[in-house]
């Protein structure tokens, strides 16, 4: 590999548009939003590069206005899953034989399309279908997805250039082959970037993919496929299906050519799929790769030396941006008694200024939760806290489903560190706070580590370096991404590789070379230039 190619600076983080009031970029985005909101969008599956329509149409609902009809998608059957698998396998040979730099060019072009003519479109689709405000849509569907595409090309070139040493008279090299068979990408509603990254990072390395996006994310998924097709992705390399989740998993995971699962979603679903793979292990041509990022019950612990304003701001941003629907969102906090009154006061001031409503108004900080089920789940936690003998709603606690699924940012204060909202994943704008005695710092660290089965993200706040080091060591297994004096959200591709352990996933670190290695099957090659002609070694005389 030439140094000229490997040193091309693909890996530069995409600049984030500020969308300040009155700016040209915010006017352009809102105009695109309104235009797309008024359209009746038709979303087909994409199998073997062709649009596939069926007799079953599912209406698209926007979380901020569940009565608004902005189109529909076509729901498929298990025959369409079979068709997608067959299309992927049929495309495999030619895609594998394409030079890696030719594959890379497709995804670099996709990144430039997203950064340019498709930027407003993919952001608006995310705002409409997933209820993200202008900033959250920008940092996700535009910037993070662009970063995934560009950084993954850079990681791929670095990975391919890593070769073993060779002794005198021999040449050792390794070939980074794609997996033998097809891969399966299952993606969530909450990040358009994740939904784009999971199938594309596998395809970039020569794999072929069946992709099942969340039914709550089909609008931005359509834009992703539009971009990839315009960028030159050959037919059959990535096949997008809208089918029943359980039936699709059963069909895909029973296929002898299934080679890898790239998953982001719930822990329960991932564990069920892992079990299916185990039950079918004797059927496969090769042992499948299993990569998953699942749930989180992410923590913030503040030391008595912490800065009050910094802690309060981190909790407001970390807990309530995108309605707490980030898998990294701050969901449980441990605040020392000496600071809690002041932290709470600052949080109340900030939270009282938060505007709530449709993403169409860029001044709204909080929008709607994703659907009715999420709304009802959040309402249940709030209502139970209001009547509990060991918890109370300290801030917020309102909700309204008359037009959209709106849950106001809520802080639950509890005297029981194992109260339900302190230990259960909620995925909504609800933060639970346990106030601990200042002298119980070390015991509270143990509590943080042992309370949840998850281990995704966590933060420690302190101005005392010894305390930071104590937390760093005590919580080494409590999170895959650890933050010091910052909120536990906002991992940036190329800067903070993302993933957690325990019940939070396989910790294969999206946004890094580590993840890409999982989608290769390495072949070691040794070539001897002058072969021995006699079996005898020198020690034989």
From TrEMBL:
Signal peptide range in chain numbering: none
Pfam families noted in UniProt: Aldedh
Statement: the UniProt record of this protein carries the keyword NAD: yes
UniProt keyword ATP-binding, yes or no: no
Pathway: Amino-acid degradation; L-proline degradation into L-glutamate; L-glutamate from L-proline: step 2/2
Coiled coil regions, renumbered to chain: none
Domain of life, source organism: Bacteria
Keyword list, A-Z: NAD, Oxidoreductase, Proline metabolism
Catalytic activity: L-glutamate 5-semialdehyde + NAD(+) + H2O = L-glutamate + NADH + 2 H(+)
InterPro entries: Ald_DH/histidinol_DH, Ald_DH_C, Ald_DH_CS_CYS, Ald_DH_N, Aldehyde_DH_dom, P5CDH/ALDH4A1, Proline_metab_enzyme
E.C. number(s) listed in UniProt: 1.2.1.88
Molecular function GO labels: L-glutamate gamma-semialdehyde dehydrogenase activity
Every Aldehyde dehydrogenase domain range: 56-524
Family named by the database record: Belongs to the aldehyde dehydrogenase family.
Name of the protein in question: L-glutamate gamma-semialdehyde dehydrogenase
Organism: Chryseobacterium lathyri
């Amino acid at each position: 590999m030439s140094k000229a190619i490997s040193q091309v600076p693909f890996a530069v983080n995409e600049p984030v548009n500020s969308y300040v009031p009155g700016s040209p970029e915010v006017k352009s985005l809102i105009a695109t939003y309104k235009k797309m909101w008024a359209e009746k969008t038709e979303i087909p599956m994409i199998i073997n590069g062709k649009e596939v329509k069926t007799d079953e149409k599912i209406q698209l609902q926007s979380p901020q206005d569940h009565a608004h009809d902005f189109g529909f998608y076509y729901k498929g059957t298990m025959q369409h899953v079979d068709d997608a698998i067959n299309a992927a396998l049929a495309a495999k040979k030619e895609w594998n034989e394409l030079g890696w730099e030719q594959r890379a060019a497709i995804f670099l072009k996709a990144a430039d399309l997203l950064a340019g003519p498709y930027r407003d479109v993919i952001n608006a689709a995310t705002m409409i279908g997933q209820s993200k405000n202008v900033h959250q849509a920008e940092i996700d569907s535009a910037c993070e997805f662009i970063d995934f595409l560009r950084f993954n090309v850079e990681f791929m070139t670095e990975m391919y250039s890593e070769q073993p040493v060779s002794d005198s008279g021999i040449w050792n090299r390794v070939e980074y082959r794609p997996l033998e068979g097809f891969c399966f990408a299952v993606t969530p509603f909450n990040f358009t970037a994740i939904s784009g990254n999971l199938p594309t990072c596998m395809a970039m390395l020569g794999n072929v993919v069946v992709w099942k996006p969340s039914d709550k994310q089909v609008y931005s998924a359509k834009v992703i496929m539009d971009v990839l097709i315009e960028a030159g992705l050959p037919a059959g390399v990535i096949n997008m299906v809208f089918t029943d989740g359980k039936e699709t998993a059963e069909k895909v995971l029973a296929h002898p050519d299934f080679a890898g699962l790239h998953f982001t979603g719930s822990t329960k679903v991932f564990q069920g799929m892992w079990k299916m793979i185990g039950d079918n292990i004797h059927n496969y041509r090769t042992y499948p790769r299993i990569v998953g990022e699942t749930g989180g019950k992410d923590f913030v612990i503040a030391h008595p030396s912490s800065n009050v304003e910094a802690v309060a701001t981190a909790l407001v941003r970390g807990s309530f941006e995108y309605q707490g629907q980030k898998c990294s969102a701050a969901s449980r906090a441990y605040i020392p008694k000496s600071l809690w009154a002041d932290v709470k006061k600052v949080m109340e001031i900030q939270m009282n200024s938060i505007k709530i409503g449709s993403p169409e108004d860029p001044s709204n900080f909080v929008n709607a939760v994703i659907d009715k089920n999420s709304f009802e789940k959040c309402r249940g936690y709030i209502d139970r806290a209001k009547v509990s003998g060991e918890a109370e709603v300290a801030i917020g606690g309102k909700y309204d489903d008359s037009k959209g699924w709106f849950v106001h940012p809520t802080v639950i204060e509890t005297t029981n560190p194992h109260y339900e909202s302190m230990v259960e994943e909620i995925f909504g704008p609800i933060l639970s706070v346990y106030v601990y005695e200042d002298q119980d710092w070390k015991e509270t660290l143990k509590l943080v580590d042992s309370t949840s089965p998850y281990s995704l993200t966590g933060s420690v706040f302190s101005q005392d370096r010894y305390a930071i080091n104590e937390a760093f060591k005590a919580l080494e297994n409590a999170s895959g991404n650890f933050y010091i004096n910052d909120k536990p959200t906002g991992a940036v591709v190329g800067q903070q590789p993302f993933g957690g352990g325990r019940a939070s996933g396989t910790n294969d670190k999206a946004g890094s070379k580590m993840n890409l290695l999982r989608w290769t099957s390495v072949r070691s090659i040794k070539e001897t230039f002058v072969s021995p002609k006699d079996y005898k070694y020198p020690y034989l005389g």
